[in-house]
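Two folds, back to back.
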Amino acid sequence: MFSRDIGIDLGTANVLIYVKGRGIVLNEPSVVAIDTKTQRPLAVGEEARRMVGRTPGNIVAIRPLRDGVIADFEITEVMLKHFINKINVKGFLAKPRILICTPTNITSVEQKAIREAAEKSGGKTIYLEEEPKVAAVGAGMDIFQPSGNMVIDIGGGTTDIAVLSMGDIVTASSIRMAGDKFDQEILNYIKREYKLLIGERTAEDIKIAVATVYPGSRNEEISIRGRDMVSGLPKTLSITSNEIQRALEEPVSSIVQAAKNVLERTPPELSADIIDRGVILTGGGALLHGIDQLLASELKVPVVIAENPMTCVAEGTGKMLEHLDKLPRTKFN
């Protein structure tokens, strides 16, 4: 009858799974490769990600989650089933209890889709918890005290911003502007400025290697390859940090604005706490060069990047699994 409780960070870019007693056991890209002729899944996760942009016409690599929510229900189910089977947590007769994180402003229809996908993948009882809250717990914040904590979780599809106190969210905002959008802006910039077509993976490589969002804080160069839109032939060129900073100005300013809006709606006593404690940055987007400096200068409060920003949400689910019986079985219904 042995079965374990598991926590899932169901991200637009990556899926992380935490098993009670074992820690994070899986961290793979949210990608499924499908053969369009037979409609059969060929690969899931890392193996499927390696196929992105490099497959024959009948094989497509699909990302079933967009903007933090399920865009393709069947493929999400295939992906979750594959990952849950891979980590081998099902008992002989027992099913695991699953805690899944969701963006703060998702609709009841989107919540239902996530719950159903988890149930069909073999979960017994499904608990949903808001992502910034879980990220804050994973980053080591004590959110259960009567004092203000602010977290900005920049993921692949959404940026969730929340002020927490007494174990719950006081004010929050979720915007569909995050890592994927940064890649898209870089891709569009290079297409517009240089008439060069590059793929999503190249855009992501540029973001990691040379991008910055704080003027003058990084001065690097990368040479990239793509297809010239005029001649149709392969072409190589160099891109600098300054250019990428200009390309990312717009998406990053909307994150800054959303954070300002959350602070404006925060009760004054909690605002005072945030000035003392600062803001914690979590999620893969926290690793974007200069984002902490930019937010600190715009919000006028200290901004700290969490120790392991990529795994904060998964670590947080782990801590919450310890108190699963105290959580409302489904907070949203």
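---
second:
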Amino acid sequence: MRICRYTSSGREAIGVVIDDRVVHIDGATAIVPILEAGPERWRVLQQQYEDREGTPLADVELLAPIPRPPKFLAIGFNSKDHVDEALNAPATPEMMELRCSYEHLQKAFPAPRFPAVFNKQTNSVAGPRGPIWIPRDSEKVDYEGEAALVIGRRIRRADEGEAAAAIAGWTVTNDVTVRDWQWNTPQTWLGKSFDTHGPTGPWIVTVDDFDLEEAVIRTWVNDELRQDGRLAEQTLSPAQIVAAVSQVCTLEPGDLIATGTPAGIGAPFGRYLVPGDRVRVSVSGIGEIENTVIAEPKQT
């Protein structure tokens, strides 16, 4: 089932996406309670609304499915080809400095015991068609197309089986990154958390309707394909990620975890985003988001 948050005629609503239309779910005010209800409820809702007329998707504005998730976490270095491109990037002064930093990390942690996890502040969440801002503080804004899992039940210290059962759905995200703010401090979240730098959507696909083994992540910038990778080929599986994180903190319904980006980011080649660019991220089996890049507007 595909569940979306949208506006139509100026009113916000929650709906089921059926083919090319969205059908309002009576009485629903948020997506998280639906995710918590579980697969039986999802099937009932799908059957209940699939024959209703609804509103054409072209006539609604899709919003971020979960506008303020309790936590917005992300996994770094979860794709071998992404790590390799950082280590083998062209020998520009900037990339040589970065490569040196990675080599120090590799020497310090030759066999890391835990996944590389960072958080994106929830203010970074943006809609599937909203703008991505180039902040006044930097011109080194990069894209990272990813699939994000959505937690559907409260868990703590889960094993992998319990962790897999806690994943309620999936959505598309772009882990937009301000590279100099990321690289010039050991605190990764600074470069990951600028406003508008976490577009998500276009909806959430429940886990019972998503084939992880077939999912492909692709990113285009101005219709040029930049990233193309399979979700199933990531180093850590979704269950391993959720199980590991749950040892540290309680995971709650509505938490988002972006599971990692494939190779093809802009930084190794200095191909940073500029105003006017269009960034499209697609995950097969879910859908796609497309965001136009603009200069950060002046504050009023």
